[in-house]
Amino acid sequence: MVVRLTRLRIPPEKIKEVKKIYQKQIVREVRKQKGNLNVMLLEPVDDSTDYISFTAWESNADAAAYESSGKYQEMVEKINGMFSGKITFKTYKT
């Protein structure tokens, strides 16, 4: 299994809108991708604006195929302009 963590900063005034798009659009689309095991938005327990998009995949090849297919960028575009700074992601294996 491979896990990808995508970190993004969401200004307080955009959190509600981003969470709605994530749950209603992004989760639905990512779950359709080959090898996807889970997808969720992790929220900070403090006053931080750092959120993490968590995706779990059967293999690194499945995660890479999702990214190279253009779907990952398409999902980022759904919330483009609603986060501050640069989105960063890291891949981990179990």
Q: Quickly give the structural class.
A: alpha+beta
Q: Specify the CATH architecture.
A: 2-Layer Sandwich
User: How many helical elements?
Assistant: 3
Strands of the widest sheet, in order across it, are 2-3-1-4
Q: Could you give the distance between the termini?
A: 6 Å
Biggest pleated-sheet summary:
4 strands, antiparallel
The proportion of residues forming helix, as a percent range, comes to 25-40%
Determine Rg (CA atoms, Å): 13 Å
Beta strands, count: 4
Low-confidence stretches: none
As for the number of domains, it is: 1
Strand content: 35-45%
- Rough outline: globular
Order of helices and strands: EHEEHHE
In the CATH hierarchy, what is the class? Alpha Beta
CATH topology: Alpha-Beta Plaits
Mean pLDDT: 94
